[in-house]
Amino acid sequence: MSRQAFVALVTCFNEDETVNYQATRAQVRRQVEAGNNIMCAGTNGDFTALTFEEKVRLTEEVVDEVGGRVKVIVNAGMPATFETIKLAREFDRIGVDGIAVITPFFIACTQDGLIRHFSTVADAVQTPVYLYDIPARTQNHIEPQTARALARHGNIAGIKDSGGAKETLEAYLQVGRETDGFQVYSGPDHLVLWALQNGAAGCISGLGNAMPHVLAGILSAFNSGNVAEAERQQAIFAAFRTDLYAFGFAPAMVKRALYLQDASVGASRQPALLPNDEQDAQIANLLRQYGLL
């Protein structure tokens, strides 16, 4: 099985903070040309700052721009099951390849509550559903046993693990080994190659926004059996991650690094962090060190 890279695509904004759909389309083309699939309306896509209508139009624009050349997954997850289903049905209509559902945030959930939430969403659509675990942001964590129970649902196709702990990722991978058709996608950028070597179906990367060809290179080398080249590319990717994320909140730093490469992506909607001039200069210097500017 050929493993696949998805980029958790940034959403581009104009100076007045309206969505810049044309600039977002340009980012889609950039990733497709590099060989990466697309995830939109995720954490790196500022999904919590987007309205319902914007998410629907964003997905329509991305799917249209992709034109079937690569796969598109879109995040429908919201705190309430009701709104998550409404969004998921819109994405179902548009015709995406997968619907990611981030764990509810703000509302504390039991594991039984999570099973009910995800199962109800998966029952409501035809498109395969992917669980999305990022407990540092949502404060709700999908325990491996919960993932095992949900993996038996006929329309839950896998999980994106953005927890950052190798132990949890390994536990999800074990669920994948035990359950035919349940795919595990790694979120942490320093674990891309490790996850592939341990059976992951691929990765969903935020850092790939700023370094698309290196991300694609890890997957291409791994798929062709060139382990040394995959390790070389992974080392570059991991080092850039460490250097960039030292400046602050990861999604904001990725967006700023991309902004310094291409100002058309714009800043994030407020109150997201905006680096100052000194930090911009440091990020620009880092980009130059890695040949990205």
Question: How would you characterize this protein structure?
Answer:
Helix content is 49%, strand content 13%. It has helices spanning 21-34, 52-66, 81-94, 111-124, 135-138, 144-151, 166-178, 192-197, 212-223, 227-245, 250-261, 277-289; strands at 4-8, 37-40, 72-75, 98-102, 129-133, 156-161, 183-186, 202-205. The chain has an eight-stranded parallel beta barrel with strand order 1-2-3-4-5-6-7-8, surrounded by seven helices. Strand 4, helix 4 and strand 5 form a beta-alpha-beta unit. The longest helix is centred in the last third of the chain and has 19 residues, at 227-245. Helix 2 runs parallel beside helix 3 and helix 3 packs parallel to helix 4 (111-124). The chain has 293 residues and is an alpha/beta fold.
